[in-house]
């Protein structure tokens, strides 16, 4: 059982504050879809509107093509996994999992059997009669997943459920969640501020800022062809340059003019910035004439095994970063040495400054 | 002990301990013990005290089973005549109507506490709290008197309803429930906050996500309350119930003031034995009956609802 979820022109106002602003998105059945954004961007509000805890001020929420207006959370085919999991502390693990069945009047033997079955599904057998407080963080996580799956939802809503776990467990649970999603083919809507999580797990990602969706795309495109400056800076690292488009493919900054690629909607008069990712930068002592090159000196090198991060400064004092793959035959330049930061025109993106960019920088 | 001395010095520690011992011994244990001891001795003229007639016995306690009298029990229009010792009957009615007081307070307080803890905005909560607490600044006596006036035979309630044309003849408001309606209503009013605040406290400690999770999993409102909210609040409910029950059972003022011709509270019996008959021994015996039976009753109830003493102390 799986269903699509669609938001049509959805806005949500709290008093005078607009948390979600005119959002349109269609999530396909069986898709793993993430809303990614900084705290306060409205992603949790979207989740709560889909689950039915709040009704949008404007617009419609559709689940499986059915308008959800006026339908309470207990009647929607959704199940939510809360950030703090919200397991019932006074019930045993199996009672927790079977709660959704209990309130539907399913008899005890069937409930128990279903709970055991789900505990097997989330690879947590033999804890049915324990209490949540007796389990570890990762185990509790699995119980919460099982509890949500027990009601056979068509849509599963996850509100940063991994944020309380330590790094190692978090990475493990990512794969786990993804596997469970594939196994059950339930539509997953996942809320996170962790870009790695969103990119690694999702079929598609919506990047949000200030209540608006900045970009909806597959993870690769979010990273490689961000729609605007906000997406580029929120997802991954960048070397940023303020400047002006001089001709079709030329961008003039305070450290020179570069051949560039234009992002969505960029015209000559638009307010833009140039973005170059650290891993797309090469360090060359004597660059060929006519290539994109910025003279800089190496300030610091941090070697991280498979790659090294080089911190540089150009003549204006701007900090630049390069990420070089580890190659014993080509060691990174020494600290203090002079070099050039070079990059290909197709990896140099000129992107629109959105309102969100300014907002993100203030943060 | 050693830690106390290290922290406060020998002088201050000595004073603290001495005061605690004084409080426990002189203000609690000795008076109760004196009353307890005298409850087993007969009420005698002063010259016979300490004489051959002054022996220990359970006579004072057993008088509760004396003087059988005829009563009519009314249940839904049926009348059952019973014959039972008059003091025992008063005792049973006292327990019964104290239970009714407790249950009524609980039914009123649970939704109110839920509203205060989970629904109302924090800004409005403080106003709400003030409105609830301000009446408590008035003494119990005045609050009981207010209801005495309100429910009087030709009092404000009657007059208002008459002027509105709802009733024509005045009503004895305190004569309902077998003569205990005025007592129960006023007891509920006087002690309701002792029920409200423990429940409210336990409810504020409930994570709102739990309520949402239950709802999200398909629970109807009553199912969420029954399976999630009430179990969480059980200690608060128990604590409030015990307090209100004990206060109601032990109340003397309200049953005296709001009485009807057919109402009698067990505390009134104790009072009249002590002060009208001057029989302190007999009064003490009845007081201990009340204390023991109520303690047993409360323990049984706590056992029944699976609440521990430690939960209540939380």
Features:
heterodimer, A: 363 residues, Rossmann fold, OB fold (Dihydrolipoamide Acetyltransferase, E2P), six-stranded mixed β-sheet, 21 strands, elongated, B: 314 residues, mainly alpha, MetI-like fold, two-stranded antiparallel ribbon, 5% strand, globular
**Which geometry of chain B do the CA atoms define?**
globular
**How far do the termini of chain B sit from each other?**
25 Å
Report the oligomer.
Answer: heterodimer
Q: How many helices of chain B in DSSP terms?
A: 14
Number of strands of chain B: 2
- The CATH topology assignment of chain B is MetI-like fold
Secondary structural class of chain A:
alpha+beta
Question: How many helices of chain A does DSSP assign?
Answer: 9
Total count of strands of chain A? 21
Task: Tell me, briefly, the overall form of chain A.
Answer: elongated
Percentage of β-strand residues of chain A: 25-35%
Integer average pLDDT of chain B: 88
The sequence of SSEs of chain A as H and E is: EEEHEEEHHHEHEHEEHHEEEEEEEEEEEH
The CATH topology assignment of the largest domain in chain A is Rossmann fold
Number of domains of chain B: 1
Q: Strand order across the biggest sheet of chain A?
A: 6-7-8-3-9-10
Question: Could you give a short account of the major beta sheet of chain B?
Answer: 2 strands, antiparallel
CATH architecture of the largest domain in chain A: 3-Layer(aba) Sandwich
Description:
The complex is a heterodimer of chains A (about 375) and B (about 325). Chain A has helices at about 45-50, 95-100, 110-120, 135-150, 165-185, 195-200, 220-225, 230-235, 355-360, and strands at about 5-15, 15-25, 30-35, 60-65, 65, 80, 155-160, 185-190, 205-210, 210-215, 240-245, 250-255, 255-260, 260, 270-275, 280-285, 290-305, 305-315, 320-325, 340-345, 350. With about 375 residues, chain A is of the alpha+beta class. Chain A has 2 domains: about 5-225, 3-Layer(aba) Sandwich (Rossmann fold), CATH 3.40.50.300; about 230-360, Nucleic acid-binding proteins (OB fold (Dihydrolipoamide Acetyltransferase, E2P)). In chain A, the strands form 4 sheets. Chain A has a 6-stranded mixed sheet, sandwiched between helices. A 6-stranded mixed sheet of chain A has the order 13-12-11-15-21-14, with no helix packed on it. A 5-stranded antiparallel sheet of chain A has the order 16-20-17-18-19, with no helix packed on it. In chain A, helix 2 (about 95-100) crosses helix 3, helix 2 packs parallel to helix 4 (about 135-150) and helix 3 packs across helix 4. The radius of gyration of chain A is 24 Å and the shape is elongated. Chain A starts with a strand and ends with a helix. Chain B has about 325 residues and is mainly alpha-helical. Chain B has a single domain, classed as MetI-like fold. Chain B has 14 helices and 2 strands, in the order H-H-E-E-H-H-H-H-H-H-H-H-H-H-H-H. Chain B has a two-stranded antiparallel ribbon with strand order 1-2. The longest helix of chain B has about 35 residues, at about 1-40. Chain B is globular, with a radius of gyration of 24 Å. The two termini of chain B are about 25 Å apart. The chains are: A alpha+beta (about 375), B mainly alpha (about 325). At the A-B interface, strand 6, helix 2 and helix 4 of A face helix 9 and helix 10 of B.
